[in-house]
C-alpha cells in the first residue's frame, strides 16, 4: 500500500534573499520582483523530488500550478492534484490547500518555504499530520526544517520506512527587527516531523514525545518544585519541560510564553518584557528557568524573546536555572546564547549546570 | 559463501593470545564441574600485583571491570554524590543511574572533549564518588595527568576511581599512587591489551577506603579464565608487541581518514571516535559486514566509535567508509 504524501510549495519563498531583502512577506514580494528576484522554491522542490529513493512506495497529492503540480512531472512519482489557486498565491492558499490535504487523509505533508510558510502550515494542520519542511525561505529559523532539500528527501524516505515522529518547533520571527538585522523570535507552535533529528537544521533534535522523555520531564519537574524557595519569583520560559514543572504544581502554563510563579501560585501569565520588568521591581529574589531548544541548544535568543538582555541582566547569571532531559542535552554539542547583547552573551558563556533528572545535573558549556 | 563479519565495535584486541594461553584456558575447562581454586585466585592477585607494581593486598579481582565498577557504585553511592564525565563508559553511566541518589556529570564538549579540571574540583564540595575513565571511552582522550590526580586527591575528600581499561595503550597510570592515597582506586582489565575479552578478568588496585568498603566483595572467576590470565601474566611480551601493532595501525588509520577528509579524534586507546554526516552510518557499515559502535545515546548525532583491528580489517573499514560516503554524496 503506497503512502499518500501531500506536497505544497510556497513559490515566492526565498526570493528576497538574493536581492538583499529579508523576506517576501506581504509587499516585500513585489519589491523583490522589482529588484529582479529569481524563484528559489522551484529548485528546492526539484532537488527534493530527485533525491527521494522510495518513489515506488509513495503517491503524491500536490497543490495546483506553481504551488506543486508544476514541478512533479518527470520524477516517476505518481501524483494527483488537489485544490485550486490563482496565478498569484497567498498565505491563505497555503492554509486552505494544506487543510484540504489533511482532510483527504495524507499521511505526511511536505512543504517548501520559510518560517512564514511553516506558521501557515502550523495554523492549518497543527499536529494532525507529520510534515517534512524543505528550507526555501529567507528566514528559516524554525527547527522543523531539514538542513537541506536532500536531507528532506531522506526524511521522507525515513517516514516511508516507518520512522517515529517527534515534535519540533515553529518560530515566529519579528519581521521589522529582522529587517534591521536583529533576530528576535518567539515560539509560535509545534509540528510533528519524522524522528531523524540529524537531518534537521542546525542540529535541532526536538521535543521528544516518547514515554521516557515524558518520564524524564516529570523527574526534572519533581526535583525543581521540591527545591523551589517560597520567597523567590520564578520566571518560567517556554517549552514542554517547563510545562511539566507547572503541571507538577497543578498550574496552567503558556506553552509558548513566559509565566511567573511565586509561592507555587501563578502571578504572571504570558508575560512580555514590560510585564517581566514590572514583576522584577516587585520581587527581590527571582530566578529564570529555561530549557534549551532541542538540537541547536539556544537557551536565550531563540524562542523566548521576552527574556531580553535587560531582563537577564536584572535577574543575574547566578539565578538562571537550565533544565532539559538527558537525551536532549546529550544530543547537543553545547548550549548557546544569542541575546542580542554581545557583552551579555560573553558573561553567559562558560559552564552551566543543567538539571537533567531528579537530583541529576550535567555541567554543560555555553557558547555564544 | 558468506562474508565474515569484521568486528570493530567492542574495542577487542584483534589478535589471539599465544597458544600456551589458549591451552591453559582449555586446561581450566577440563575442570568444568569444579569452582575455582582459592589458591589460584591468590596466585592471580600476586601476579597482577607484580605486573602493576603494587602490593597484593590492594588487588581486588572481578569478572569484568563493568561488574566491579557497578559494585563500587552500589556500595559507595548511597551517601555520596556520583561525579562523572559525559560521555563515559556506558555501563558505569547506567550503574550510576541505577544506584546513585545524586549524580553530576561534566560534559566533554566536541570537538576537543577536554576536561575542565576547575569545574571538576568545584563540584566536589560535598561528599563525592568520582569515576573517570582515563583514557575516556568513547572519545579516546587522556583526560587526567599526574598533576591533576594529585590535585584531586590532595584538595578534596572525594573518593576517586580512575578506570584504566586502556592503560597499556595510553601508557598513563596512577596505580603507583594508590599506596599513599587511601581514597584512590584504579580499575583495569585484561580484556583488551591481553587479548582475553572472552575470559573477563578485571581487577582494581584499591586504596584503603575502597578495600574497607568492598571487604565483603568476593568474585569467583571461572577456572579457565584464571588459568589463561595467570599464563598471560607469566610472559606479557606478546601484550607489548600487540599493543605496539595496534598503536601503529591506529595512527595509520587516523592519518588516512583525516587525509580523506573525515573528522577523526586523536586517540590514546585502541579505538577512534569519528564524526560523520553519513545518515545511519552504523547500519550502513553493518550492511557491508563491518560492525562499529553507535554512540547516539551519549553524543550528538553522527558520532561512531571504531575499534582498531588488523591491518586488513582496518583497510576494509577505510574502503567501506569511502564506498558508503560516495554513495551518500551521490544521493
In short:
The complex is a heterodimer of chains A (368) and B (331). Chain A is α/β, with parallel strands linked by helices and 368 residues long. Chain A has two domains: 197 residues, Rossmann fold (3-Layer(aba) Sandwich); 157 residues, 3-Layer(aba) Sandwich (Rossmann fold), CATH 3.40.50.
Describe the model:
- The complex is a heterodimer of chains A (368) and B (331).
- Chain A is an alpha/beta fold and 368 residues long.
- Chain A is built from twelve helices and 16 strands.
- Chain A has two domains: 3-199, Rossmann fold; 211-367, Rossmann fold, CATH 3.40.50.
- In chain A, strand 9 and strand 10 form a beta hairpin.
- The radius of gyration of chain A is 21 Å and the shape is elongated.
- Chain B folds into two domains: 6-14 and 238-330, Aspartate Aminotransferase, domain 1 (Alpha-Beta Complex); 19-234, Aspartate Aminotransferase, domain 2 (3-Layer(aba) Sandwich), CATH 3.40.640.10.
- Helix content of chain B is 41%, strand content 17%.
- Chain B has helices at 19-29, 38-52, 65-76, 90-99, 117-122, 146-155, 167-170, 208-213, 223-234, 237-259, 281-287, 311-330, and strands at 6-7, 59-62, 81-86, 103-107, 128-133, 159-163, 184-189, 202-206, 263-265, 271-275, 290-291, 293-294, 303-307.
- In chain B, the strands form three sheets. Chain B has a seven-stranded mixed β-sheet, with helices on both faces. Chain B has a four-stranded antiparallel β-sheet with strand order 9-10-13-12, with helices on one face. Chain B has a two-stranded parallel sheet with strand order 1-11.
- In chain B, a hairpin with an 8-residue loop joins strand 12 and strand 13 (303-307).
- The longest helix of chain B has 23 residues, at 237-259.
- Chain B is globular and about 60 Å long.
- Classes of the chains: A alpha/beta (368), B alpha/beta (331).
- The A-B interface holds A 50-51, 150, 153-154, 196-199, 203, 205, 327, 329-334, 351, 353, 357, 359-365 and B 86-87, 101-107, 109-110, 116, 119, 123, 279, 297-302, 331.
- Strand 16 of chain A pairs parallel with strand 4 (103-107) of chain B.
